[in-house]
Amino acid sequence: MTDQREGRLLFVAAIFLFLYSIILTLSPAVRERTWDVAYRFSHWVGFVLWIGIVIVAHRITSRRLPDRDPYLLPLASLLGGWGMLTIWRLDAGFGLRQAIWLGVSIAGLTAIIFTPKNLGFLRSYKYILLTGGLGLTALTLLLGTNPAGFGPRLWLGCCGFYFQPSEPLKLLLVIYLAAYLADRLPIHQRIFPLLVPTVFVTGLALLLLLVQRDLGTASIFISLYAAILYLATGKRRALLAAAIALALAGSIGYFLIDIIRIRLDAWLNPWSDPSGHSYQIIQSLLAVANGGMLGLGPGLGSPGLVPVAHSDFIFAAIAEETGLAGTLGLLAIFGLILARGLIISLRAPDRFRRLLAAGLTAYLGIQALLIIGGNLRILPLTGVTLPFVSYGGSSLLTSFIALALLLAVSDQTEETEPASLTSPQHHYLLAALLGIGLFTASLAGLWWAVVRAPDLLTRTDNPRRSIADRYVLRGQLLDRNSQPIDITNGKSGSYQRVYLYPNLAPLVGYTQATYGQAGLEASLDNYLRGLQGYPVSTIWWNRLVYGTPPPGLDVRLSLDLQLQKKADQLLGEFKGAVILINAQTGEILVMASHPTYDPNRLNEIGSFLAQDKNTPLINRAAQGMYPPGTALTPFLSALQKNGVNDNPTTEIYKTLGFYSTPAVEMPQAAPAKVGELENLRVSPLQMAVAAASLSNSGMRPTPRIALAVNTPQDGWVVLHAFNQPTRIFSADIAKNAASQLSAQDQPYWEWTGFGGPNTEISTWYLGGTMPNWQGTPLTVVVLIEGNYPATAQAIGGQLLQTATNP
Amino acid sequence: MSGPIVLGLRILLALALYVFLGWTLWTIWQDLKRAGQQATTQKIPAIRLEVQIKNQAVISRTFSQPEIILGRESTCDVLLDDATVSARHAKLNYHHGQWWVEDIGSTNGTTLNDEKLTIATVLATGDEIQCGNARVSINRGGMGTVSSTQSLPE
User: Is the pLDDT of residue B96 over 60?
Assistant: First the structure.
């Protein structure tokens, strides 16, 4: 009956891991959305090893412990296999080591099972065992190393094999306390003499751990000591004292020990330092959020982004790839292990084994809750492992030895009467505390994976966005005649953005893993990334199936590459901006800003660009703010004739739109504050929009840059201007003003003005078609930093001529 | 196409996990039910008590419940209506395959075969319990012999 039940559950566990392995094998095909990929196979070695190990464990326990608890081995084996495959998915080398350690752990389990069943040797040799454990831990003070080469030196190592003595020390403490209290409690009447030896050894262990800065293990020690003492004596004070001790140690440590302060600060205020001390916890939460309900699937998330994902943060890795469904299952498995452990304790035939089983259960429960709580930001982060799951030989071996002891205690026939118990209340309270812990963890998982996920995933420091860019085609940016400006090259997995017309860089910007996004690549990102323009269901389906948005949509811009090239050529080495705008529709045909840079070489030049005194990253046409000076004369004289006022007023500037940013989807500088007169600054784009009204019978258009987006279901969909044009002059005034400025022998008006003090003078050129012009009404604005009126006029004039005589 | 296939596998993966958990819980539930049934159908060998208070007539009663309380209070299973008997005087209960007698804090104490009871003691047919002026003789039906190797629980 027991063997059959255990066998069946192990079979279901094997099916689970088999499915996990299949998905992991197929995962590259899903990522790259093609069958022609390199599949992953190496983890099947781990799966086969797991099958072998589990069969051996099942056989041995069946023979030696016929009346054991039938659930513990399947539960622990599922956790062990799940962890091992997750580690393999993160790093095949670690995965193989973990599989081998799983074998070693089962060997350890066998060794325990073959000892006499009443575990009397543990009871007899409790001091020797504990002293040995303390000795080995003390040895790390002298000979300690860290396999990673840095960090706390908690390991003893030789010949590529590392061992962390503080792991088995927890187990040895449980054994010692159970044995000591079981032996002494019936004799001693007074509690204090009874506790002196236990306080002494626990204090010694704590001291060692504090010196070694192994604070996670130290807090487990305090909690374990309190739990076992409570179970043995029934004094609730023990739990209270431990809670106070932990809080006190935490607050004293906050002021005295750096690592505690850093950890606590990172826990309390993670968002204030997301790339520093809180990096780990925020990456962990991002992974949990990315997993959502069902998870992305084994091999399909990016859990490798979380530091030490294979060890401390394996819960986050599991959450990302199997989602809330997986984490709730994992918590339920731990819940079952703990429940079985407490039942075993209640059924134990003597006091020693009862305390031992309860202590081992508390050890597994406290450690699991501590690290899961740390991963989910319920508790401060402590660097302990998740029992049975995390990478690490010492941890795995210790967990399985604890399991073996529980199995040995559970091996009682139904006739065996449990030892008498004054009251089961203490076990109930322990069960309730552990249950509340697991329930809180489930709620926290729900919170991060569902409620807070949308906010978290759109954070700019979520590196998953740039990973998705490598696998999902980004939309193209095209000019008004469908000439490509920015395209994406390569194949899925190594997509790369190519900027075919680098001179436009200040306007169109870039999208790149290290430097993020800028310009139109940033402001049109939702279309280019496929997050807008699709039906919601398509986006949802792609997110569910591939974990990424659908392929990005192409966007057609209003730019005319032909004219843009001309403008760039004319502006040449001058620092400044050129804008050519359709005065009626507001479509921006040309937007040049010099100096410019080559976004294709961002990797090499990115760090210099930001410090370049010539600020090539700034789009001078929209982000540069310049004093308008005499460039405003045409507007002022036009409005003056209207009888409004002699001097420029707030009202006039407001009419001209100088106190607001033009409503167009590109990064722009903040506008001048309302009421600013003396120190007014305007961007060339603001000036162009205002000047357009002279060519457009007094109507100020709303500028447009993105004309249409190519959606799969409706083809090209027009993106309308954000606002209607506003009238700022009557048609007559515009006509008069334009004819007064009319250029000699040319069908257009023009005006050159200067702004700013002599040291920082800038030259403005404004020009445009006459209001009665039969063709497309156009307006040009040229701004050059420095005193270059002739150049500005030449650039503007030639551009207008080219544009009006195609 | 790989995406929807793997999505199906992912759903199966989650299902496998919950089948595992569900099965575990179901078998635990079965265990619980079985244990419950066993507890309710557990055979407790009948015990006959012959009660005599002072010189009144002997009252004889047979019990098949696991716990019998003797005392002066009306809620007791065996009512010993005498001033020398405490409200709740002594307890007989069945476990480890035996009937045990135990004093539960009486004022005048309990004796078994004229020896004062200090801890729970196994009963055999013919044993006599004295609670104050009340005398209770035990008849365990056909299973009157006591195995002398029976050890006390810790």
Answer: yes
Element (H, E) at A505: helix A505-508
* Residue A630 DSSP one-character state: G
Element (H, E) at A145: none
User: CB distance from B58 to chain A under 8 Å?
Assistant: no
Residue A81 CA to residue A61 CA, distance in Å, equals: 18
In terms of CA atoms, which chain A residue is nearest residue B8?
A545
Strand ranges in A601-747 using DSSP code E only, listed in sequence order: 699-700, 706-711, 715-718, 726-727
Provide the 8-state DSSP code for A701. P
Look at residue A643 in the predicted model and tell me its pLDDT: 55
Mean pLDDT by 10 residues, chain A (806 residues): 90 96 93 88 95 94 90 96 95 92 93 82 84 83 71 70 82 91 75 79 81 81 90 84 86 81 83 81 91 90 85 92 95 96 90 92 95 92 90 92 94 76 83 94 94 84 83 92 91 88 92 86 91 90 88 94 92 93 92 92 86 89 91 80 63 86 90 85 93 89 93 90 85 84 82 86 91 88 92 91 84
The reply to whether B1 touches chain A by the CB within 8 Å rule is: yes
CA gap A644, A631 in Å, rounded: 19
Residue of B nearest to A15 (CA): B16
Q: Any residues with CB less than 8 A from the CB of A758 and at least 6 apart, and which?
A: none
Residue B90 backbone phi and psi in degrees, to 5 = -145, 165
Set of chain B residues whose Cβ sits within 8 Å of the Cβ of A551:
none
Facing B154 at nearest CB: one of A29, A30, A351? A351
| pLDDT at residue B151 tops 60 | no
B25 neighbourhood in chain A, CB within 8 Å: 336
Are B13 and A78 inside 8 Å of each other by CB?
no
Give the tens place of pLDDT for each residue, A646-670: 567 788 888 888 999 999 989 999 9
Contact A329 B18 (CB under 8 A): yes
Cα–Cα distance, A479 to A730 (Å, whole number): 34
In which element (H, E) is residue A535 found?
Answer: none
Find out whether A726 and A766 touch, Cβ atoms under 8 Å: no
Q: Closest Cα partner for A303 from A314, A292, A294, A311?
A: A314
Chain A residue numbers with beta carbons less than 8 Å from the beta carbon of B13 are 16, 19-20, 23, 297-298, 322
Residues 135-154 of B with CB under 8 A from A: 153-154
For the record, the structure tokens of A618 come out as 């700034």
Task: Say if strands B128-131 and B134-139 run parallel, antiparallel, or are unpaired.
Answer: antiparallel
Predicted TM-score of the model (pTM): 0.80
Q: B105 pLDDT band (50/70/90 cuts)?
A: confident
Q: Across the strands, what pairs with A779?
A: A581, A768
Q: Is the dihedral of CA A74, A77, A83, A85 positive or negative?
A: negative
3-class secondary structure for A148-189? Answer: CCCCCCCEEEECCEEECCHHHHHHHHHHHHHHHHHHHCCCCC
Quick check: A360 and A402 in contact, CB under 8 A? yes
Tell me if chain A has a CB within 8 Å of the CB of B6: yes
Mutate to test the interface with B, among A23, A68, A118, A330 (most CBs of B within 10 A): A23
Residue A527, token pair as written in the block: 């279309």
- Using 50, 70 and 90 to split pLDDT, how confident is the model at B146? very low
Exposed/middle/buried for residue A539 (C-beta within 10 Å: 0-12, 13-18, 19+) = middle
What pLDDT is attached to residue B42? 66
Tell me if chain B has a CB within 8 Å of the CB of A78: yes
Which of A30, A322, A352, A472 to mutate against chain B (most B CBs within 10 Å)? A30
